[in-house]
Description:
Belongs to the FPP/GGPP synthase family. The chain has one domain (about 5-305): Farnesyl Diphosphate Synthase. The protein contains 14 helices and two strands; from the N terminus they run ααααββαααααααααα. The chain has helices at about 5-25, 40-50, 55-65, 75-95, 110-115, 115-135, 145-160, 165-175, 185-210, 215-240, 245, 255, 260-285, 295-305, and strands at about 105, 110. The chain has a two-stranded antiparallel ribbon with strand order 1-2. The longest helix is centred in the C-terminal third of the chain and has 28 residues, at about 215-240. It starts with a helix and ends with a helix.
Amino acid sequence: MMSSTGSFVMRLSEVARDVEACLEALLSDEARGGEMARPARLLSAMRHAALGGGKRLRPFLTIETARLFAREGEGPLRAGAAIELLHCYSLVHDDLPSMDDDDLRRGQPTVHRAFDEATAILAGDALQALAFEVLADPATDPDAAVRAELVLGLARASGLGGMVGGQQLDLAAEGRYGEAVLAEEDIRRLQMMKTGALLTFSVEAGAILGRADAAARNALRTYGRALGAAFQVADDILDREASAEALGKRTGKDLEKGKATLVDHLGMEGAKRECRRLVAEAQDALASFGAKAEVLRDAVRFVAEREV
């Protein structure tokens, strides 16, 4: 790890605690305005999915990007929490028997194992709906145009042309609909949609909240895309080199299913070189922000060099 890792991890942990508290409040027992009731079993499943685990990298990126533009406080925290709710919904559905059929997530039973499959589907649905509710709430930003842009951006990042579309491509890559032979560009597109789109939007959300100009937003979009790609390459490497105990989830899934990754196309050393190249690309994109963006530079190094 780099010399700045200690302070970075401390900051990441501070933000994670704030996000956890925000999620706790959003997933409290008390029904909110417009709600008739919060069914106890469904709420428990949602809390199981969203609380007590994960590094909260996506909200961290939103919060720290907003800080570049002196935008801090409840708004970026709520926006980050909304993105985390969306991310948690995706994990619940990815783990289902019809998808990846996983028993373990973040070191604990997946939602469909801890509860049941129908409850897991509903919990994912409700987490997704809550994410958009949080972004659309004036408490996130007083400017309706900003809130609308956040909602639009999250919908695009998570839907047909983003995360959900990427999951469909991922299923096809497993050969579910016939033999699948993926070229390197196919793998990169799949990964950019399934994983990278939401990570990129996490950065863009901070820029939206910060009222960044077009040049700054373009630079941050480049940063976010490179970070998202580095995250997935690092994930592919960990899937081959780390243990399930260390990761808190099953490893070797892609290899079991015969699904190609960049590790297969580039080799392990080639994949590690590609990860380093993406780190450099992400950091170069932040040049115009100077020292203010050091925490974002640390973030992409952390993503590439993490061991869990």
